[in-house]
Predict the structure.
Amino acid sequence: MHPAWRDCPVPALRHEALHGDRVVRCFTPRSHNLWRLFADRAVCQPQAEALVCGARRLSYAQCASAATRCAAGLAAHGVQRGERVLLFIDNRPEFIVALLALQYLGAIAVPVGVREQRPGLAYIARQCGAMGIVIDAALVQRLPDAEEAPALRLRLVVGAVVGEVVGDMTDSLADCHSWTQLAQCADTAPEPATPGEHEVAVILYTSGTTGQPKGAMLSHANIVHSAMHFACTMQLSASDRSALAVPASHVTGLVAVIFTLLHVGGCVVIVPEFKAADFIALLAQERISHTIMVPAMVMLCLMQPSFAQAKLDAWRIGSYGGAPMPLSTIAALAQRLPGLTLMNAYGATETTSPATVMPMGHTREHADTVGVPLPACDMLVMDEQGCELPPGQTGELWIGGPMVVSGYWANPEATAASFTAGYWHSGDLGSIDIDGYVRVFDRKKDMLNRGGYKVYSVEVENQLMAWPGVLEAAVVGRPCPVLGERVHAFVYAPGISANSANEAALRDFCAARLADYKVPETITWRSAPLPRNANGKVMKRWLRDDLIGSLEVQGVMPVMPRAGSAGSDSPASPTSPTGDPGQAA
């Protein structure tokens, strides 16, 4: 365990056999399933606030009662232990109540981001054999039919009365059931299930940037350990109030906010839609003490005039991920909010969110890192032959520990390719220095080769993001017959004009901080945020195709066939790609 964690309230650790033949360090004692994790808190502090969303407020006792009633209704509709139920719901209390109801029954929740379109939703339903779905009324047009998802026999609609017409649908919801009616079920709920901690609690589908998405199997033990990791490293307690400003369906919202706050007995304040001005008002009104966001969201808040006057003295933990925080932003926050501690975090769906966290007070000195491995995490830097590299050298990050999933649902080939002796191959290139701090440079597949020189796109993107006014940046390879690739940048800076003077200034800024071969030679200034897939990840394949298409139109390079981008890697709208930074964490 890294020395930085010695001053944190880290639970006792011991080696255990977990998920087959893995031997990993585990926390003891711990909750052995997710319903127990929540229910124990509901017994200890029934009147404490658990969920807030606008005017709606639920205590732990009320939340437990609502989840139990819904569990009774789900059981009456045939939901049993081990069955899969999709949650296609935006950030709202029903998401958390449904999630807990499924854990009560020992069923498996399959949250799906609401940016997913009908073909992707149907694929996920088929791949995991889902028997049911809970869906927002506003999204019912994406509901797969019986031919697209034959096993999907239970359809519950949130926010609509069965039989009414929703939107411009011509068909009624006659084959659906009302979530509102189910939530009022008077049946007696069965006894809560007691699944083993190795059993799957949640399936989260990875973003599918290189093909069909894979369903990562998050066990009860995985999620419990991640919640405990967040709680001890961020020193969270029942007095904390966290803003759920990222999607509840994403591993960050699901684990780092929902289950972590329920574990410590805190309050989850649900943010249905991130808008910087409204979010600042919410921070003050609800006395938010804990947030997890991406840097672009923080920068948008800083740009709001109201940020300077808002009463934000309760905000003490500002965790972030997805990209480093620019030093200028760190300095601005330190001046405005001296009581706010910034903590970078790095992880993935397959690591049930966190693998590293920045220790408290270390951000300014180690701003170019993602912190250190968590207390129960083992992290290795490996070369192409599967041999460990010494400190400071760059290789692929392999991650092990009790929070690493056992594999992918019904996909043994992908599991075998991505895991070795319990270590997950992250696909990220990085290094660990002599002091144990982890740096993440790039995805293996996103590294550019410019005439034999390696260019890590993340390194260039970090410098682009450090230029005042740049909210998002992505670097891709521009085809070159001589060098193979040249560095091309896509930049979203809504307050900056796209002209030659600004482009020259941005390139000069990068040239003062990067080797000459890493400086972007060409830049595309975007008037809209970068395109993201259903899980909020920037779709570089789409950007590459867009770049090549524009070069073909200009006659710079010949027209050539390109791989199709249909399916889960397609933007929500081809003509207006979505890119709300709140979806990226």
About this structure: Confidence is low (pLDDT under 50) at residues 559-585.
